Every structure is written in structure tokens, then in C-alpha cells.
Amino acid sequence: MKRDCRQNSFPARSxxxxxxxxxxxxxxxxxxxSESKGGQMTTRQDAAERARRLVAELRAEISRGKLAPxxxxxxxxxxxxxxxxxxxxxxxxxxxxxxxxxxxxVSSVGIFVAEPSGTRSGCYVxxxxxxxxxxxxxxxxxxxxxxxxxxxGGRSIVLDLPTLLDPSAxxxxxxxxxxxxxxxxxxxxAVLNALDTSIPVATYLAGAPPAAVREGRQLTYVDVDNxxxxxxxxxxxxxxxxxxxxxxxxxxDGQAPFPWSAQRAEGWARTLRRHSRRARLAxxxxxxxxxxxxxxxxxxxxxxxxxxxxxxxxxxDLVMIALSQQLSASGIPSARWPIxxxxxxxxxxxxxxxxxxxxxxxxxxxxxxxxxxxxxxxRPHANGTVALAPMxxxxxxxxxxxxx
Length: 404
Known about the structure:
With 404 residues, the protein is an alpha/beta fold. It has four domains: 1-33, no CATH class; 44-119, Arc Repressor Mutant, subunit A, CATH 1.10.10; 122-221, Rossmann fold (3-Layer(aba) Sandwich), CATH 3.40.50.2300; 227-359, Response regulator (Rossmann fold). The protein has 14 helices and 18 strands. A hairpin with a 2-residue loop joins β3 (35-37) and β4 (40-42). α9 crosses α10 and α11 (294-301) packs across α13 (317-329).
């Protein structure tokens, strides 16, 4: 039956069907047995024919190379609109292609054309400072990188810089398809000099500005969204009624290091200004940079402002720990301490900070993996592209008797 329900003089939703479990809207029954096509009702056979056409045309595009291995196919919702199917029906039509290995599903990302079996001859490298002492942050980035490369049909390996730069050591490895530089020191130049120009490289910025990209190189960047993180932390305090929020930074205006501290301070300032044009912007900074002492210098400078404000945002958890130690050493009772918000979510800061803003390091690793995988498959991201990983907020209750 092909009849437009809109032609009836009564609303279609008022029609009901008496089933074994009570009354059901007739429109629900129609949806279960047919597909929508421009307001007309079409039979199951019509929908099945369009689903078969979807699969046949997709197979043809893959066999002709129009959809190459590693390429993401259109989203299920897009295919549903194109072939006038419901989204569940479109997904069901794709299932045989997934089952036979033609397509590969990457959770929360999409569906990709799978690599042909036996073609995974190379590997993607995540470069770290040292294999002997890997920080927990690095572990999280490695996990996201390795999982995404595997999901997309590739293989990955974690190396340190000496191994990658040693030609004899590199010759014993599978062909390098891409390198993710996740180090504190800027070694990108050394990596570029050691690799063939066709190999894509992704670098973790750590808040630093991107360097000038060489002509003919595939160089992209990843970072965490520090500005958004500073905004998240400040907005959480404003929701609790704190309007006099100061920032404890590790940066000194116009000077390195700690550019990520300046970016988090930018997010804090933007949010306060958006909340009130009269907001006091008190950003405490260390008087100077001294290796191993900058955090303590910043915390010492923050003691007096801590007694004049109800809350503060720290550049990271370490400076909040140092501030609590300074306040405790000064004999100031914890009831007079400001509410503290920090970054990273370090376990040792859990009793001191009421809110933690955590960079999603796994997503940062996954974004780098996508940049390298696409670049190695002839679909490079634009040189100099910066992909930002989000931050998440973890709010805790205030504890009166806090101790460092």
C-alpha cells in the first residue's frame, strides 16, 4: 500500500492498533515494516533493493580504488539519506562488508576501508625521551596512539631518540611509515633530518608555537587545549559563587619556558572577563626562572594573594601542592586557604584541590595517529595543522581540614 497519511482528514498519530500488549500507534507499526521516502510509504522490498545497491556501489568504489585502504567511508546517516534508508537499515547493510574484512570499524570515529591482508609491512613510531623512565602522561599518550593505529589496521612501536637516529638500529626495524615526537626536548629537527622526506611527522607542542614548516615535508602538530582547560577550571569556580579568582602561573610574560601555563592563564582571564567586566585579574607569576625552583618561587609569591581571594587556579597540580606547603609552613589554618583548582589530576593533590582539569592524553595520542596514518596513505593533513585534544573536569567536595 502506497498512500500518504497526510492526505487523511485526521492526524495519523491518532490511529492505533490493538495488539496483544495493548494499543500501539499505527505510525510505529508503519516504521517497523517500511522505510520513509519523501513522505511516501514504500515496501520492504524497495528498501531491501536500495540497501543492496548501497553495498554493490560501495564494493565497486573500493575495487576501482576510488575508496582506497584506510579511507573513511561516508557516515551511516549520510548513506541513509543518499539511499533513502533509515540509519539502522544502512548500518545493517554494511555489516557483511565488515564481517568479510572489507571495512573496519573504529569505535567513536567511523568506518574505514580495511587494509588488504598481508600489506602491513611497516610501522608507526612513537618517540619518547627514554624507554627506561616513561612518565604516566606518556603511558596514556602511548595507549591512545597504539590503540588508534591498531584500529586503523596498522602496527606501532615505541622507540627512544638514539634508536631512531641510529641507521644500523633503524635498519633492523620494519619500514618507518610515520613518527610521533612526544618528548619534552624539541628534537623534531633531528628527526626530520634523519628521515626520508616522504615520511610524515607529528610533534607534541606542549604549548609552544608551531615552527616554520619546511617545504616538501609532512609536519603536523598535536597539543592539549590549554586555553579551554583554563576556562573550564574558572567556570567551575564561578558556578560555585567565587568571583575573586586569581591564577598562580609558572610563566613570566614574554619568556619561556612553560608556555602552557600562559595559555591556561589566558582561558582563566577570558572566562572572568566574560562573567564580569569589573573582574579583578590577579595573575601571580614567579619573579624569575630557576631550574628546580620556579614552582616554589611561584608558590611563595602566591601566599599573600591566597589570603585575599576565595579561590585560585594553579598552572598545574604541583604548584598547588607547593602553595599548600607554603601556607602550612606560614602557620595559616586551612580554613583560611582559598579553594584550589589544579591540572593533571595527580593522586598526591587529590586532598588539596577541589577540582582537577585533566588533559585527555589518550585522545592526543589518537589524534597524532590519525595524522600519521592519513599522511602515509597519501591523504596528508595540511602542513602545520594543529590538532587539539580536549580536557575534562573532575569536581570534588571541599574538605576543611586539608593537609599538604
